[in-house]
Amino acid sequence: MESQTQNKSVALIVGVTGMVGISLAEALNNPTTLGSPWKVYGVARRPKPTWFPSSSLHRYISLDVCNLDETYHHLSSISNEVTHVFWVALHAGTKHYMGPIEGVIPANQIVPAVDPPFHEESARLPGPNFYYALEDILISYTPKFTWYTI
What does the alpha-carbon distance between residue 116 and residue 97 come to, in Å, rounded to a whole number? Predict the structure, then answer.
């Protein structure tokens, strides 16, 4: 069992091998970042790539977060420690910042004309969007969580 650190801010970055995830991990390790010092855990579906900057994480965790049992197995030991969850992973078929990708919404469904990028005050678009589901889950826990979409 790992010893507890004095970090008041502990991040779990889901999607840590993407551009946003890597940048976020590096930013949290900056001593001038709000909440420093940070302890940073990173999650990705694939094993850690050889090019990944290992020094930016306390621990790299390889798991498929769509698998509940696997997620519980890998994250339950740190669940009481994590203070911030950053979900920057993208789900196939949609990009929350640009809307549905062609072929995800049936051809006969009308999609409102909205120019990306979208904003929080923008209406939800029809069709499946993984980020809408995440927002709904977070809203259901309010006021326990403070959350922002970017």
Answer: 7
Q: What pLDDT is stored for residue 3 in this prediction?
A: 44
Q: Is 148 a catalytic residue?
A: no
Q: What share of the chain is helix, strand, coil (3-state, %, to 5)?
A: 25, 15, 60
Catalytic, out of 48, 60, 95, 144: 95
pLDDT tens figures, 125-142: 776 677 777 778 777 776
Residue position matching structure tokens 């909440």: 35
pTM over 0.85: no
Domain 9-140 CATH assignment equals 1.25.40.10: no
Task: Report, in angstroms and rounded to the nearest whole number, the Rg of the chain calculated over CA atoms.
Answer: 17
Active site residue 72: no
Q: Give domain limits for the chain.
A: 9-140
